[in-house]
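batch job 7 of whatever, protein = Pitrilysin family protein
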Amino acid sequence: MRKRVITLASALLVGLSANAQKVEFEEYDLSNGMHVILHQDNSAPVVTVGVMYHVGSKDEETGKTGMAHFYEHLLFTGTENIGRGEWSKIQAANGGTGNANTNWDRTYYYETFPSNNLQLGLWMESERLLHPIIDQKAVDTQNEVVKEEKRQRMDNAPYGKIIYGDVYNHIFDKHNYGRPMIGYIEDLDAATLAEFQDFYKKWYMPNNAVLVVAGDFEKKSTKKLIKDYFESIPARTLSKRDNVVEPERTQEKRVKEYDSNIQLPAILLAHKTPSMKERDSKVLDVISTILSNGKSSRLYKKLVDDKKKALQVFSFARNLEEHSVYNIGAIPLGKTSLDDLIKEMDEEIEKLQTELISDRDLQKVRNKFENQFVASNSSAQGIANSLARNYMLVGDTNQINKELDVINSITKEEIRAVAKKYLAKNRRVVIEYLPKKK
């Protein structure tokens, strides 16, 4: 059966690649407020069912962190109609796979099945929302799972605090984006069963979710199944979210962060940047590509190839709903100092702030984004995720079809202006990321 799933996935990849430039979809609301998005593509017999809930770590209360990510695990425990530990077994026995992921803004659950098991996928996601098991046994079991995940994937990962955003506490003074996405383990240990149950009641409701079905299905029968499984789930009053405005930084801040898993230090230039809803966030994605995406990028060519001052360079944005984060960093080679790397990186940033990039560089960036777009939308899972994210966090489901137009419309002048505005020295946090003796 596993071989069959891989074959189906490969067929879906080929079937969708040719049509990746335009994603057709239909969207509507159920009477209980759940938003539904349907993307029908019958080129391969595979279907993805996903439900995204508008709750992430930024929505947690002080002293009660970690619950958003915790539920990513807890809701695979079982339901009143799915026995403990049976969730994955049911998926596998029916040729399916599934997973979930959490960030600061949302929690997303999805499953992919051969299309003749669409009804099973819809039923399982409705069970997750309607009949979850949230008892002390489930909480205690998953608490250990979360701790082990933190130990293996985060605490023991080289440069893990950069990868998983644990350094964001240096960037955000007020906003909850400054908390670790996984939360604080001591908060989870101290939480009562009633507090776990209250978190679920507060955020897990149909009127705080989007259901997406992508792949091989027939719309009329699928709409009936969705109505049967989801519309009877009652809506609840959604809590008002805190509107925390993070003040703009006006003076460069320099801090040290330690990691016992590394032997080589790193330097990180971290910036608070605009919401993923704003055009400037796309411009910063373009800037990131210019600086460090590939061996022909400016920082890689200069610091790794030519001057051999860095073992590695990187820049990346984490685009979030209310604010985003943009990082530029490098790992020194040999006796190169962190200050020397800062000087070299600043020279490249200043070029972007004062000079227009070439036509060739601009076209190269556009080509890379087109390749990324095709790759991300070449599977039912990828399309389902994009549709749900764009609806929930961007506020426009059709952003999936506007993405390349936006990138291709970005001008050299915009790149220069955005670099000058957001990568200014007085807006950044310089993080010396240093080895810590064990």
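notes: The chain has two domains: 2-230, 253-435.
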